[in-house]
Structure formats: structure tokens, C-alpha cells
Design a protein that fits this description.
Shape: elongated
Low-confidence stretches: none
Strand content: under 5%
Length: 77
């Protein structure tokens, strides 16, 4: 019989954010041009049926995720 490997949880490195941000400030600039806040613009871009580019949608998802990070950390403690 084949041996099963014991699954171990890998701890995520805290540096994933630096790798995720490809164009610092680009999404904020887009939001500013639209006359909105970053979170408001992210909400607008991610609505169903919006015709934003794939890059903008990815930036919006990342902005949303980063916005929620501090709250998650507080809850864990």
C-alpha cells in the first residue's frame, strides 16, 4: 500500500502584498479621475455587467482585499 503524506499547513509569508501590487498608485489615480474614492470605484468596477478592463477589475479586487485586511487581523486576536 502507498503511504500517505501528512499534510502540513504552510504559513503564508507576510510579503505577498508586495508581489501582488504591480502598479502602485494606478488604481487610485483611476478612481481620482472618475471623481470617486478607491473603495467606491472598486465597488463600481466590480458590479455585474461593467465593461472595465481585466486589469482594472483585478486592481479593484486587490483594493477590496487590502481594505479588509486590518479588520481581519483585529478579529483574530
Amino acid at each position: 500500500m502507498a503511504r500517505r503524506r501528512k499534510r502540513t499547513r504552510r504559513r503564508r509569508s507576510g510579503n505577498w502584498i508586495a508581489g501582488a501590487i504591480k502598479r502602485p498608485g494606478a488604481f487610485k489615480a483611476k478612481a481620482k479621475r472618475a471623481g470617486m474614492s478607491t473603495s467606491g470605484y472598486a465597488r463600481k468596477v466590480l458590479r455585474k455587467g461593467r465593461r472595465a478592463s481585466t486589469r482594472t477589475k483585478r486592481q479593484a479586487r486587490l483594493a477590496r482585499t487590502l481594505r479588509r485586511l486590518p479588520r481581519r487581523r483585529k478579529r483574530r486576536k
